Amino acid sequence: MTMRRRSFLKLAGLGLAGASTAPVAEALVRGTTEAGKNASQGKRWAMVIDEKKCLTRGGCDACVKACHRAHNVPALADPRHEVKWVWKEQFENVFPDRVTPYTPAAMKERPTLVLCNHCDNPPCVRVCPTQSTWKRADGIVMMDMHRCIGCRYCVVACPYGSRSFNFEDPRPGIQGEPTDYPTRTKGVVEKCTFCTERLAAGQRPLCVEACEGIGCGALTFGDLGDPASPVSALLRANDVARRKPELGTSPHVFYLL
Amino acid sequence: MHDTGKIVLGLGVFGVLVTGPLWYGIGRGKGAPPELPKPANAKQCIEPTAFMRARHMELLNEWRDAVVRNADRVYVATDGQHHEMSLTGTCLRCHEDQDKFCNKCHLYAGVETFCWDCHQKKKGKPTLSARLGGGTP
Amino acid sequence: MLEKALTGSRRWWTLLAVLAAFVAVGFATYLRQLSVGLGITGLTRDVPWGLYIAQLTFLVGVAASAVMVVLRYYLHH
Q: CB of A21 within 8 Å of any CB in chain B?
């Protein structure tokens, strides 16, 4: 009996060794992946929003339209199910700590542009059970809709309300024909991703380009790791505000108020 | 406790229900895999046909992870050609329409393709039959 | 053991029928939720976690305590 068990174990060990070579042999047959040659390299992407420039336009939503159109973000009938990547919020809701009892109503209701802050310390990444949202090395908090299970923990965790859950099928709500960017299904969470597909092609986010395109230039996007970038220059020269800094999320969308 | 009759009856009903698809399929279905249309603008896919036939899903999964999670966009094939890793941009550039190409085999094999829930420019809700390869309305 | 559930008065069967109706409605509504999405639950952008999540752990505790209460009857009867 003892000899039979020993020889069985020897055979099993050899078999395991043999079986483990198979995947290695197969893996060599495929090609490799790499970043494109035009891809933008950044150490820490960030955005600066110039409130004054944005307000002189009054009621402009070129950035919102550009983003939502290109990314197939639906416009749904029920406002409680809304999906938004970038939107305008009242000033008193964006910066509640900067509102005093003497702030005039017009200022309290000032439409202020708001989007995902791509925090350094993102609560949404901390809580995601599947890591379908994660922090890239270049600072962008990215979304993987394939892996998202729709638990909405990140929606609950985000202190800025930047994330939207698809409560219903978004495709019927898409205005016009869908673009090349993949749409989402019901049951996943989505948000601004700083246009990673455009960064990979060496372009800037759509909101920034749209704002420049109408001659306003309120949005500046760049690499904080590059001291020569426009955002670095703006942060060196100006007093900036961030949303809810006391929470410790270290957001990277800065506001020139 | 003389439940043997009931138990055997229950098991029998369960067995018939579970093998239902087999009974349904007798006499139905095509005998051979469908002929796929050849693309007009290319002679060879990005990898050899035999490889693609067996492992295209592995490739697509790898592409998905590379693009979304690693921010890589370019695939260097075994013959050294560079291709953009995009289902709609690269694959469908030659194979045109998922109804004419992908879904033909997937419907025959009964393997669900849920790529088209999202990577689809045609409007309209994909129905269950569409997900099984029957085409979108 | 199965006989215990299958023998009873008219009232028993009425109760079973009412409960079965609830189950059927629940099942049909679940299928609808699978098809339409979570929007039909009344969950919204502002209330993303409703009864589903908030009461999940609570009802698990209720179920466990119900087992605790009933167990004594089975053990000591």
A: no
